[in-house]
Write a structure and sequence with these properties.
It contains two helices and no strands. It is an all-alpha fold.
Length: about 70
């Protein structure tokens, strides 16, 4: 299976599971301060940026040794 397709289905299943189990368990909290949402946004963007940079770095290192 394609890695992107697998990632999509895993995220979709997790989202469905969270929203179906939340009414019974009351564990997921959406009422947070705006500062917390801002910090979560910064964390998500920085981790995505770091992952992209490291992927590009790894790709150039591998291509350098292949040729």
């Amino acid at each position: 299976m394609n890695a992107l397709k697998l990632s999509f289905y895993l995220a979709l299943f997790t989202t469905i599971e969270i929203f179906t189990m939340n009414p019974f368990m009351q564990d997921v909290v959406f009422k947070m301060d705006t500062i917390v949402y801002g910090l979560l946004l910064v964390l998500a963007l920085s981790s995505s940026f770091l992952a992209t940079v490291l992927l590009q770095k790894r790709r150039t290192i591998i291509w350098k040794y292949k040729s």
